[in-house]
Amino acid sequence: ADTGQRLHVLAGHAGPVLFGAFSADGTAALTASEDGSARTWSTENGECIQAFPGPRRCLQRALFAPDGATVLAIYEGRCARLWCAGSGACVQTLGSHKVDVNSARFAPDGRFVLTAASDCAARLW
Asked: Would you say 67 and 86 are in contact if contact means Cβ atoms under 8 Å apart?
């Protein structure tokens, strides 16, 4: 950003990229795509570190846990999932929502996840 020069093109999704985020230490970028996948990328060289396939639903948003070890993904259709950033394995599905999940956040220490939904309620996990 200092020079205004593009450093890398993070290409590999099969659909439009809807959201991007950085790890807390800035060593990785995270992208969420309409194709239902998330990907982590090295900010050093632009290479894909890990792909998270997800369900065949639009992935609206994804973010790193504060320690960078977990990725939280929010999908269209009442679904949020936690993924291991290192292995790419789904470690938990947060699925008790009866309506779409609008947003989600990790607690600053990473111990909790808060999801907000269209049913006038939030859920603490």
From this structure: no
